[in-house]
Each structure stands twice: as structure tokens, then as C-alpha cells.
Amino acid sequence: MHIFFIEGDSPLAQGVQEHARTIRGIQCTLYDGDPEDLAELQRQLKDLSVDFVLNTYEFSDFRRAEQQPDKAWQINAIYPDHLAHICLEIGAALFHISSDEVIGETRGIAFSTTDTVHPLNPYGESKWQGEEAIRQCLKRRLILRLGDLFDSTEHHWLDQLIQQSATPSGVQDASDIILSPTAISDASRVIIAMLQQMDCGAECWGTYQYAGVEAISRSDFAELALELAEDSGLVQGMPEVRGVSAAALGLNGKLALHKEMNCQKIMDNFGIKQRSWRPALVEYLEYIADQKNAARAEAQAAGSDHSEESKS
């Protein structure tokens, strides 16, 4: 199976590549160029025998999408349309990553792929239009909506929480926004599992949803993450996490308060079960702690070497 990655810098693209390397028979090719250079992208794809094109390229920051809606629309809506036409021309299938932000409010009922969406922000609306463009153009496509992703990379969700906990203002987050945390390692597992089955002849094209088991409020997730971070030595003393309303954070009407997804379809068609995000949260925080300890030891060793040189 040959997978072509539109980009390789995002944590999700890196996670999928890392998982693919553990499985024999999977070849990964990373696009060498600017993702928005469609002519070059098409040229490279024509020179290869590609089974699946994986699109993880997106304008992902919902706040920036509000400030730059045209840019979000270009990357999240128009770009997938062009990509679908390229895949149609070269005969490759397209695997497109979408978001639970297309859904809007679920009103307390887990959202199904057959339900009507109501995106609340420019990011969600642009992602929805990208989905629609692909559906209208390409039969051989997989669209996967994912829950809120987290991993151990710098400046990502967990790292930001740890950094915020050290500031005088501490951490405050919405207690009335309920999300479905999803580890990037878990999402990567799901993506590869779907592709493997399609490569073996399954005809399960369509739109799917996946998120980690157990919805939780943003503030409760932050509190749990920092409790585990304290256990790993990443924070000193358990910082207070203040649960406030979405309105107090200026998020009312901009982010859905509930966007739980029904993931039964991916179980029925692919046999993929949802996993808890809790073990991955522990693993990621331990990894961050190990990395910081290694960097601290390296810096101390370098300082000691410099001191010895100065004495000599």
C-alpha cells in the first residue's frame, strides 16, 4: 500500500507516518513542495503509483479563522475541491481529515453522520464545505471527522496547559464545553486500520467519525492533565484550575458546548472500537517529562564542561 502525504509537519501527519513505519508493506511518500502549489503536486502524483492521498493539510486555528476567513476558506474548502479533482484524474483514492467542529451543537445527543450540521464558526464552516466539495466530486473517498486532538509535541494542547500553569494567572477553562479528547496516536491507528482494509478490497467509502471514549469538560480535562503532570514532575504543586463559563471566555456562540459524535458507523464498517484517551494522556505526559529531564541533564553537562574548560 502506497500512501501519499500532502504535508508532513502537522502532529497528525507525523503520528500517522510513525505508526505506518511499524507495519510491513506500507510505503509512505511525503509531498516535496508547497502544499498550495497544485501544479507541482499534480506532477509529483502523476509520476508515482499512489493508492491513497492523505490530506491532513488545514487552517486549523478557529480564532485565526475568524480573523482570516478567506484564508481558512482557501485551505479548508477550495483546496480539498482541487485535490479531489486531481485524485479523480490520476485514479487515486482520497483520505481527508475533517473535524467535529463541522457539527455545531448536538443538543445532548451524540451526532451521527446522517444528521444535519450547523457549524458555529468560520473554521467549522470551511471544513464542512471542504467535505461537501469532496463528496460531490469523488466516489473513492474517505472523510474522517476527529475529536479534539492532543499529543506530546511542543506548543500543542498539553504543552500549553503546562506553560499556563506556571503563569501568575494560572489556568482557567470552560466547564460547560464538553469535548471528546482524542490522542493522535489513537487517531493514527484508526487511519492506518481504515486504509489497510480499503487496500484489501473493502468498499466502505464515505464519511466517518472517531473520538476517544468518554466525553469530558474542558476544565475537567485540564485539571486531570495537570494532576498527572504533577505526578510526572512537570509542575510543582497542583495548580488551581478554575472552571468558568464559555461566555466568560468569550466563546459563547463561537464553539459548540456539546459536540459528542456517534462512532458506531466506523465500528460497523471497519470493526474499529473506540479507545479511552486516558492511557495516552499518561504516556504523553511521561514522554514530555523525560524530554525535559534529558534536556536539563544535557544543559547541566554542557555547563560543567564549560566550567572545566575555563579552569584549564
TrEMBL record:
GO MF annotation: an example: dTDP-4-dehydrorhamnose reductase activity
Pfam families linked to this entry: RmlD_sub_bind
Cofactor-binding details, from the entry: Binds 1 Mg(2+) ion per monomer.
Gene Ontology BP term (one): O antigen biosynthetic process
Top-level taxon of the source organism: Bacteria
One GO CC term on file: cytosol
Protein's pathway: Carbohydrate biosynthesis; dTDP-L-rhamnose biosynthesis
Function: Catalyzes the reduction of dTDP-6-deoxy-L-lyxo-4-hexulose to yield dTDP-L-rhamnose.
Similarity remark: Belongs to the dTDP-4-dehydrorhamnose reductase family.
Name under which the protein is recorded: dTDP-4-dehydrorhamnose reductase
